[in-house]
Amino acid sequence: MFPIFLGEPVSPEMLEATLAELDVTVQLLEDRFLQNKTFLTGPHISLADLVAITELMHPVGAGCQVFEGRPRLAAWRQRVEAAVGEDLFREAHEVILKAKDSPPADPTIKQKLMPLVLAMIQ
Fold it and tell me: Name one GO biological process term (predicted).
């Protein structure tokens, strides 16, 4: 999300590596935690579900189709959204989901954040 916020391009190599890591992480979430349960910790929504869905919505906000081709994960997302309520779910993720359509950060903020962001993504 930082490159999008700062209006900086991401190298194809960095993007490929990041997407591969995301795929492994999402598969781990499905296989080890979600398994065949309704929610991550069992039959009821928990803080674990709320934290996980928030993390997964970041790449969605950047344009990654995290839930595409993953019916088990997509069904879990729908259950989380239903448990929270569609309006609250949308409100909670509104800023993240609009990030890719937002203008880059103010140049002053960008100048201050750039060294930190570059250190994180390199």
Answer: glutathione metabolic process
- The pTM of the full predicted model, rounded to 2 decimals, is 0.76
Q: How far is CA 26 from CA 23, 60, 103, 109, in A?
A: 5, 13, 29, 32
Looking at residue 7, the DSSP 8-state letter turns out to be: T
Contacts 24+ apart (CB under 8 A), 8-12: 8/114, 8/117, 10/121
Q: How far apart are the first and last CA of the chain?
A: 14
Summarize pLDDT for 64-75 with one digit per residue, the tens: 899 999 999 999
Q: Tell me how far the alpha carbon of residue 11 is from its chain's centroid.
A: 20
Tens digit of each residue's pLDDT (9 = 90 or more) over 27-38: 999 999 999 999
